[in-house]
Amino acid sequence: MILKTDIFKTRRLMTVVAALAAIAVVCGGSKRDASLRLLYWNIQNGMWSDQPNNYDNFVEWVKKYDPDVCVWCEAQTIYEDGTSKARKADDRYLTENWGELAARYGHKYWTKSGHRDNYPQVITSKYPIEKILDIVGEEPDSVVTHGACRAAIKVGGKRVNIVTLHTWPQAYAYRAADREASKAEHGGDKYRRMEMEYICNHTILAEPKAVKEYWMMMGDFNSRSPKDNWFYKYDEGDSRLIVHDYILRNTPYVDIIGDRFAEEFHSTTYGKARIDFVYCTPKLYKRIDDARVVTDDYTRAPERDKNTGFHHPSDHLPILVDFNMK
Fold this sequence. Notes:
Helices cover 29% and strands 25% of the residues. The chain is an alpha+beta fold. The longest helix has 30 residues, at 4-33.
């Protein structure tokens, strides 16, 4: 025989269990709302490698890491599938359809950087994105070749500023009349240094309180850092180091991978070069739970395409950073 008191106890227990379950759901949601997983990657020619596959491999790979915000360098379709033949402008899936592509891995919002050529950056996010500034430089001698942008999102009630960039890639300066002479004079390194100063002056250095705020800056810098010179062993004052020397000396930014792995070298290319970086301000750096260059079955061994010289899936490796924004 079941007593009435037992029924009441059972009901009370069920109520408590349900309440605890509800609290668990709420707490789980709060934890997710207060986390920020950043995924950055130079995806080479708008993820050229996966174009013929409708980006299915790329989408599944992104979904596996479930990032909250992504920053993609080289985010525009440029070439025909499997070739180095330029695709007509009106037949390029990206950048105009990033909203559709991002939705496939769970991102509702996206924005594109300012740019002058085929190499913009794109931000996609689970959080609404506030676009603040497109950066393309100024004619005639301060052109930011691949463009940059400043945007912001809010996570856990906190505003996070995002700066994206992709600097000039060549050994000679942009628009150099004599390319060989410019190479000899380290024109490319000096040009990248100019671009970096221009970008910083129009973003973090334009905000007096930025050192006390949440800022991150990432992209393909096409240059090496003094923090890695124990590995490179370049001569002191080598021009290949001047871009990051400027950042480290003149801004509050912290090199996330460089500081967390001070005695390890983490290449971000198919060779031995760390030229992709994620920087952040000290206040945001303190909130990092984890950070790494992603070397998994999809990314770790880029394969060079014999016909085009491009790589599968990209000639760069991604960077993943987890921030706790509680």
